[in-house]
Amino acid sequence: MTKTTVPSLDGVDLARLPKVSLHDHLDGGLRPQTIIDLAREIDLELPADNADDLAQWFLDQCNAGNLVDYLKTFDLSTAVMQSEAGLRRVAHEFVLDLAEDGVIYAEIRWAPEQHLTRGLSLDQVVEAVQAGLEDGVTEVRESGRDIEVGQLITAMRHADRALEIAELAVRHRDRGVSGFDIAGAEDGFLPSRHREAFDYLAKNFFPVTVHAGEAAGLESITSAIFDGRALRLGHGVRLAEDVTVERSDDDEVYVNIGRLSEWVRDREIVLELSPSSNMQTGAVAAWGDELEDHPFDMLHQLGFRVTVNVDNRTMSGTSLTRELGLLVETFGYDLEDLETFQLNAAAGAFLPLEDREYLVEQIQAGFDAVRE
């Protein structure tokens, strides 16, 4: 799916680096050929009849510069994910693609309520995806590699099923589900709309990440933290609106961090940044239209717990390896920086403490191995 040559770093193949993926949408990462195969089974008309052209169509459609148009492409991917077999295949292949990308731990988010048009129940679709994920994990391990995955059950923020979806997530917490999220059109749909669901999750000690700070700004982030009790911010890139940088007449640089951004930084709330996607959706338009304008580096330098993510592999024609390569090219990061991003992600993973500590050990060992 990669459309750009991925640079190496000091001769190191970035694909070899162990990675943690926290913000990876299942319905945004289908293989184009799989879409074609599944569409044929249900007589669904596609904008292209071969995998390469379909992949390019997704890229072209997603470069609209706003989240609303970007999200329209999901009508096509979700349309072929309405049967147990289709969901299981997509989830299985998703894990294989993660492993090829060097991912050793991933939380895969998706919205069960969008996969019910052919008569499946909410529990059935969750079980179908879990079966596919387990198929993928088994195949990866049989190939001599290792990977762990979990589901992030997502509610659509413009709908009114958040409490029902929260209950679904908790119901499957010991059967593959790691956490809860809300997604969809962000602007005009604050997390406070779903306060009852978030209260229920808090009472059940269930971890939450919230899409915030992408298509909407600081009010959305504030609501994610206050109403949603979010441990992570899905994107959160517009938190940079709460940071001002001033240069004095004698060329001294002064950085002012607002109360909200100070809270996020000091409490190490994870930012799930997705560089390519953030450019496509216009999330960083206030700072410019080139990757070098993305506030990723500023947030990193100021000590925020930044992580690198793909958001949607198919829509952005990307991989986690490619995203790291783009950041290396743009900001001159070294292996220590890339390792920090993975350790940040490991620290924010919705895992028990002991498992997070083991994940940290795996990351450190993997980076040490490529340095030898």
From TrEMBL:
Pfam families: A_deaminase
Top-level taxon of the source organism: Bacteria
Top EC class, one word: hydrolase
GO biological process: adenosine catabolic process; hypoxanthine salvage; inosine biosynthetic process; nucleotide metabolic process
Needed co-factor(s): Zn(2+)
Signal sequence range: none
Family named by the database record: Belongs to the metallo-dependent hydrolases superfamily. Adenosine and AMP deaminases family.
SUPFAM superfamilies recorded: Metallo-dependent hydrolases (SSF51556)
Keyword Metal-binding: yes
GO cellular component terms listed in the entry, alphabetical order: cytosol
UniProt-recorded name of the protein: adenosine deaminase
The enzyme's E.C. designation: 3.5.4.4
UniProt domain Adenosine deaminase: residue ranges: 18-364
InterPro entries: A_deaminase_dom, Ado/ade_deaminase, Metal_Hydrolase
Taxon lineage: Bacteria, Bacillati, Actinomycetota, Actinomycetes, Micrococcales
Keyword terms, alphabetized: Hydrolase, Metal-binding, Nucleotide metabolism, Zinc
The keyword Metal-binding appears for this protein: yes
GO molecular-function term, one example from the UniProt record: adenosine deaminase activity
Organism, as annotated: Mycetocola tolaasinivorans
